[in-house]
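F.,

This is the one I mentioned.
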């Protein structure tokens, strides 16, 4: 599984997402769109959105950080999910471009 996280250094929601992935032993590639114009353009073309974080999982894009959405996208173990608290809340940083 390939996981790409499109983020910026000043994005609090991006930090939450990366901590969540690390805490669940999910390997990911971090792409700083503040420094990588090609990646920013690819992100914008793929989702039509400029805010971060955005996550690409095996070619499928997700905008914002939602634990419930990522749990499904990443196929996390059901045993883990049984004890996890999930939320429908999406975390985004609209000013972190």
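My design for it:
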């Amino acid at each position: 599984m390939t996981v790409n996280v499109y983020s910026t250094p000043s994005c609090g929601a991006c930090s939450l997402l990366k901590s969540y992935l690390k805490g669940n032993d999910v390997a990911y590639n971090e792409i700083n769109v503040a420094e990588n114009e090609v990646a920013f353009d690819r992100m914008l073309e793929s989702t039509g959105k400029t805010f971060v974080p955005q996550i690409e999982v095996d070619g499928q894009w997700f905008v914002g950080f939602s634990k419930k959405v990522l749990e499904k996208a990443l196929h996390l173990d059901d045993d883990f999910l049984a004890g996890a608290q999930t939320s429908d809340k999406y975390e985004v940083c609209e000013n972190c471009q």
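The chain has one domain: 3-83.

Talk soon.
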